[in-house]
User: Fold this.
Amino acid sequence: WNILGYIDKHCEGWLALLESGADQTPEGKAKMAEMQAKGLKLATLADNALGDTRFTSYVTNFYSWNAEQRKSFREGQDLFRKGSQLFDEAKTPQEAQYAMTSLQQSLEHSRPLSDTWGQSMALSLMGRVQKANGMIDVAFGTMAQARELGRAIRVLSSVWDALAVQYEIAVARKQYQPARTALQEQYLITVGLKDEGAGMMVTAELVGL
Assistant:
């Protein structure tokens, strides 16, 4: 569940070099090629361990963007940061709704780019805003999308948050089997992370259902 961050470090590093004009010098080109090769190698190792091509596809897609797509990617990141800040600073659920415009726009930037991580993060935060404002059915559906996209490339934060919201909604509806399923998924994540403390907390929730 932590591998994506290591892989993305090389993607972002490569993009930062490109944006700084490193591709205009032999030394810069060599450094960019090294960064790109490391990202692809890490993705391949992760895919070999999991038996699929999810990370290689993610990295290959990232490196394939043209200048306009890279610009759209950065704009989407800025919009997500703005939405996240508005959400964090909100003192009421109503104030949190101000984040929705930026988050929706961020989502619209990430979709044409097949930016799975960006989509998952935006949807996860949108779902939290929706739930806080009593839009339970909409939030449940939004979080289902965030969970599936995040699970595809193991975006820990969005998958965990999505499961937490889906658990809370299921309990409020007295739908205990879906609630157990969400907790069981969270427990499996804690096992993968070897996080005994979080695992004990999830187990306690399961026992209490």
Q: What stands out?
A: The chain has eleven helices and no strands. The radius of gyration is 19 Å. The mean pLDDT is 95.
